[in-house]
Amino acid sequence: MIYLDNAATTLHKPYTVSEAAQKAIRRMTTPGRGGHSASMLAAETAYRCRERAASLFGVNSPESIVLTFNATHALNIAIKSLAREGSRVLISGYEHNSVVRPLNTIGARVIVAVSELFEPEDAVRAFERRLGGAELVVINHTSNVFGYILPVERIAEMCKAARVPLIIDASQSAGVVDIDFERLGADFIAMPGHKGLYGPQGTGILIARGGKTLIEGGTGGNSQLPEMPDFLPDRLEAGTHNMPGIAGLEQGLKFVEKVGTKKILAHEKALVRQAADGLGQIAGIRLYKANNEENQTGVLSFNLRDLPSEQVAGALSERNIAVRAGLHCAPLAHRSVGTLSQGTVRMSVSVFNTKFEINRMLNHIEDISKKIK
């Protein structure tokens, strides 16, 4: 199978990831649940994972790295720490349901800074116009639908100046685009482990300066307290850790650190450029591509005439090519661009994809275009 659905989950990972997860199943229990070697090994592995994440994302203290089950879990902690019913929350027009749904469940007053796709200056102006009176800003670093890199650094500066708390959803940028937590000054940055960090599913990271608990329970320490500890990461990590996942994630972080985000991003951009050039030669293709490739990662959306995106993706699946179609859990992004009724076909690459695979995909799409009328 040619796998081009890495924006959902990276399927192909370094062998060290699965190897570490398997070893954890056999050799580790849970951090803080005993003084024996199995628990101590788990504690050492979890701490190494925090250290690697802190180093990669410019975090001063490894204790600020909270290990979660996924980015959705991390975003829920962040949002429910800072937003309440009636809070005026400003978001971009490219947010995922992992942001939109928690805010609506809380009863926050959600204001959308609508801006044009792949136009960062327009995004900055949209946030400038609406920032006054905002009690919280939540912004997607990179759109999961279009690969659009939003001007997070400039919006973070605006939030600092206005003293408005900031949450960054780095689900599509972590491991691909440089992130410096301390320089950005965000209150929280959330990310999954199973995408650009090449870790197992069921892992995630929340970089936090504090936070309210989402769930409460055992932490392996301070057991005499009737409430959760007031220090990180224990405050936000109730219950048994996913040690096979954390061990695998630590190796995924090590891989990203070794290869380097600049090299990973350059590889992904080259494949997207190749795909866009080829798709542009196929009759009936509508392409969502940045004119300035600095504004786009390794995600590319397109449609074929007015065909349902699911039909095109289904035809590719029959040819053993995995892409994703539909709304990608981000209807707000599609509403912003005008693709809500059709959705898009989305291809998304990783460091393990090749030019040969992109050529195969292009050949099949051209054939599908001729056969499906």
Structure description:
The protein is of the alpha/beta class. The chain has 2 domains: 2-10 and 260-371, Aspartate Aminotransferase, domain 1 (Alpha-Beta Complex), CATH 3.90.1150.10; 15-259, Aspartate Aminotransferase, domain 2 (3-Layer(aba) Sandwich). It is 40% helix and 15% strand. It contains 12 helices and 13 strands. It has helices spanning 15-27, 37-56, 71-82, 97-106, 120-130, 152-162, 181-184, 243-259, 261-279, 309-318, 331-337, 355-371; strands spanning 2-3, 65-68, 88-92, 109-113, 136-140, 166-169, 188-192, 204-208, 285-288, 299-304, 321-322, 324-326, 344-348. The chain has a 7-stranded mixed sheet with strand order 2-8-7-6-5-3-4, sandwiched between helices. A 4-stranded antiparallel sheet has the order 9-10-13-12, covered by helices on one side. The chain has a two-stranded parallel sheet with strand order 1-11. The radius of gyration is 21 Å and the shape is globular. The two termini are 26 Å apart. 50% of the residues are buried. The mean pLDDT is 97.
Query: Looking at CATH, which topology of the largest domain would you report?
Result: Aspartate Aminotransferase, domain 2
Q: How big a fraction of the residues is strand?
A: 5-15%
Low-confidence stretches: none
Helix content: 40-55%
Q: Cα distance, first to last residue?
A: 26 Å
Largest β-sheet summary:
7 strands, mixed
Q: What is the CATH superfamily label of the largest domain?
A: Type I PLP-dependent aspartate aminotransferase-like (Major domain)
What's the number of extended β-strand segments? 13
Mean of the pLDDT scores? 97
**Widest β-sheet, arrangement of strands:** 2-8-7-6-5-3-4
Order of helices and strands: EHHEHEHEHEHEHEEHHEEHEEHEH
Radius of gyration from the alpha-carbon trace, in angstroms = 21 Å
SSE-based structural type: alpha/beta
CATH architecture of the largest domain: 3-Layer(aba) Sandwich
**Number of separate domains:** 2
Number of helices: 12
